[in-house]
Design goal:
406 residues, Rossmann fold, disordered C terminus, MoCofactor_Util/Proc, 5-stranded antiparallel β-sheet, 3 domains
């Protein structure tokens, strides 16, 4: 929803009603994840996507119906074995969406949500998407931050329990569907709530104001990272050289990183790319990087010769072999990259693979599921299209040698 939020709020502030469709649950090889959204405005224009194309036409019509009736609707899309012309997902997955009319009357707290997201403050929205309880109205919202709660889902106890669970999801940066009893009992069947988390975007910190850093910054922004380029050399670390980066900082890398850690602005989602391949910058920066939380991606550029020399220097400074297991060096996947742009793709591809547990191999060589851990059955099988209840039960880089000569 983050990508359509500015336009959604613009219509909201103009007093218009918009049809907002949000992915709330996925099973199998669904193309979009929970939280993905599309909006249909009063003039018929559309922004965003919930399926990558498979069911967008049906969702567009659904949003029109919801805008006309004023009543939210939930819908499920999957493979329809008995009707080849029915709307469904060609990938074999199952997609649950929730479509609601959004206006100042139906969602008065939307402006607060938009301001928090714009300011990169953590915030989450809990929405009732199904209810058999008369006090929990479908479409009601509870907006919460780590310290505040506004709105209501229909009961004090329900609001309290959902707020606790939603804050847990917000800490993880995850969105999910939760179920409760009529009085807020966890794991009940009366009320279904979708929690949409808007955690601040993950950070990418690029050390070294070099040409490769500019390309990596552009790729990082494309992937949704908040990108900082840092270098101690003010002549190189300038805004015109890195227009895509959110921040360009002149400071010694190790000093800047430790200050950011002390300020609580480095977490397990952070990616650190050390691209200077100069020992006086790299070694102290990597020493500081090894002090970051587990899960932080740490990569360093350089040839194999540079890599071996770097390992020797780090060990001389007291870095342990356990620390060194966190280091991706030479940085990136083996794509045969040569240009800065190609090398940037190699680097962000490794970051994605590390984050998601990918192998980096060609998909044509794999016989397992395309999406790791989706636990689905082969495409087209009856098991892959069963009901939600059934589903619920169930490269080293060689390019651095060329880089070293730059």
């Amino acid at each position: 929803m983050r990508d359509v939020l500015p336009t959604l709020v613009e219509h909201w502030r103009n007093g218009e009603t918009v049809g907002l469709t949000t992915v709330v649950t996925t099973f199998g090889s669904a193309p979009r994840q929970p939280g993905a959204a599309a909006i249909r405005s009063a003039d018929g224009s559309v922004l965003g996507s919930v399926s990558g194309g498979c069911v967008e036409g049906a969702v567009y019509d659904l949003a029109g119906d919801v805008m006309e009736s004023g009543e939210p609707q939930a819908e499920r899309y999957g493979i329809a074995d008995d009707d080849a012309f029915a709307v469904g997902l060609t990938c074999g997955g199952i997609l649950d969406v929730f479509c609601e009319p959004v206006s100042q009357e139906t969602w008065p707290e939307l402006g607060d949500l938009a301001e928090a997201v714009e300011a990169r403050r953590p915030i989450a929205v809990a929405t009732v998407i199904e209810s058999s309880h008369p006090h929990a109205r479908v479409g009601s919202h509870l907006t919460l931050t780590p310290d505040t709660v506004s709105g209501t889902l229909g009961g004090d106890n329900l609001d309290r329990v959902v707020a606790q669970d939603a804050r847990g999801l917000l800490d993880l940066g995850e969105s999910s569907t939760l179920r409760y009893g009529a009085e807020g009992q966890r794991m009940g069947d009366d009320i279904t709530v979708f929690v949409n988390s808007f955690a601040p975007p993950p950070r990418m910190i690029v050390f070294g104001a070099v040409d490769f850093a500019s390309a990596v910054a552009e790729a990082g922004v494309l992937l949704g990272y908040h990108v900082t380029v840092c270098d101690a050399r003010s002549v190189f670390a300038t805004r015109p050289r890195f227009p895509a980066a959110h921040e360009v900082v002149v400071d010694w890398p190790h000093r800047y990183l430790r200050a950011e850690m002390a300020a609580g602005r480095v977490d397990s989602r952070t990616a650190i790319c050390v691209l200077t391949h100069d020992p006086k910058f790299d070694v102290p920066a990597l020493q500081a990087a090894f002090e970051t939380p587990e899960g932080v991606y740490i990569g360093a550029m350089g040839s194999r010769r540079t890599h071996e020399d770097r390992l020797r220097r780090l060990r001389e400074e007291g870095v342990t072999d356990t620390d060194l297991t966190r280091l991706h060096s030479p940085i990136g996947l083996d794509l045969g990259a040569r240009t800065p742009a190609e090398t940037a793709v190699s680097i962000v591809a490794e970051i994605i693979a590390t984050r998601r547990g990918g192998s980096g191999a060609n998909l044509t060589e794999l016989t397992d599921h395309i999406h790791p851990g989706d636990g689905r059955s082969p495409i087209g099988s009856q098991e892959s299209v069963e009901s939600k209840e059934s589903v619920e039960s169930k490269e080293s880089v060689e390019t651095q040698e060329a880089i070293e000569t730059q």
